[in-house]
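hey so i finally got around to running the thing on that chain from the lab meeting. sorry it took forever, my laptop kept dying and i had to restart like 3 times. anyway pasting the input first so we r on the same page abt which one it is
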Amino acid sequence: MPSRERSFRVEAIVLRHNDWGEADRLLWLYTRELGKVRAVAKGVRKLRSRKAGHLEPFTHARLQLSHGRDMLIVTQAETINAFLKLREDLVRVGYAAYVIELLDRFTYEEGENITLFNLLAETHLRLDVDPEPAFVTRYY
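ok and heres what got predicted. didnt touch it at all, straight out
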């Protein structure tokens, strides 16, 4: 984990999320800098939230995180790639979910692995554009 600075930036892919409390969302992220981490996005379920669209599953985003009492808190979010074509095709969404599930099951929290992060990002990019998503998934 980076030094105990109060706030820091990471590049992450959102693996999944769960509603937490009245307006918050608990996120599982795979980051380039920290590996797999959990973070909370405060107020993201409110209608006027500016972060909500940047924190959907499969989204590649640049995040500002800060240390909370128990876990990381997302303070800012900016989308790098939303993989829009992937989201329009149910078969591609299924393959992307399978890739995320494999990553989630075979990794542990807070273990940096830049190669694995790059493979995940490239796989999502290929699933977004490649005509044969089955081959992309098999390569992953």
